[in-house]
């Protein structure tokens, strides 16, 4: 059964500006594992990566209905990839489906949280 659906879109230029002004934003948004991936990328791809991860985490918070803040932080959400490259969020109680897309100007993400039979 579907527990929630979340959608978010981010202007890549806004994230690029934020990253230039406050480089620590990457450490705030990304988990240590995600930060390792981020650090291996070139400058342009770093901004796309951070924008996409930001959008996914916001979409996930919307899907579970609490938002980023007191109950849930960016560090509580980690996007991992299957061997095929498909992103997902590992959660002990739910199956979390993730879709990320980028254009030149935007990064967008959709998250579907599905309750498991466990």
From TrEMBL:
The gene is acpS. SUPFAM superfamilies: 4'-phosphopantetheinyl transferase. It catalyses: apo-[ACP] + CoA = holo-[ACP] + adenosine 3',5'-bisphosphate + H(+). Keywords: Cytoplasm, Fatty acid biosynthesis, Fatty acid metabolism, Lipid biosynthesis, Lipid metabolism, Magnesium, Metal-binding, Transferase. This is Holo-[acyl-carrier-protein] synthase. Belongs to the P-Pant transferase superfamily. AcpS family. GO terms for molecular function: holo-[acyl-carrier-protein] synthase activity; magnesium ion binding. It comes from Jeotgalibacillus malaysiensis. The keyword DNA-binding does not apply.
């Amino acid at each position: 059964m579907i527990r929630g659906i979340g959608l978010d879109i981010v202007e890549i230029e806004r994230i690029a500006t934020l990253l230039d002004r406050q480089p620590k934003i990457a450490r705030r948004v990304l988990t240590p594992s995600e930060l390792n991936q981020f650090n291996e990328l070139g400058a342009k791809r770093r901004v796309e990566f951070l924008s996409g991860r930001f959008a996914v985490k916001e979409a996930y918070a919307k899907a579970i209905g609490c938002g980023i803040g007191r109950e849930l932080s960016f560090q509580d959400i980690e996007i991992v990839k299957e061997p095929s490259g498909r992103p997902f969020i590992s959660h002990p109680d739910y199956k979390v489906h993730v879709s990320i897309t980028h254009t030149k100007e935007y990064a967008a993400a959709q998250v579907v949280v599905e309750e498991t039979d466990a």
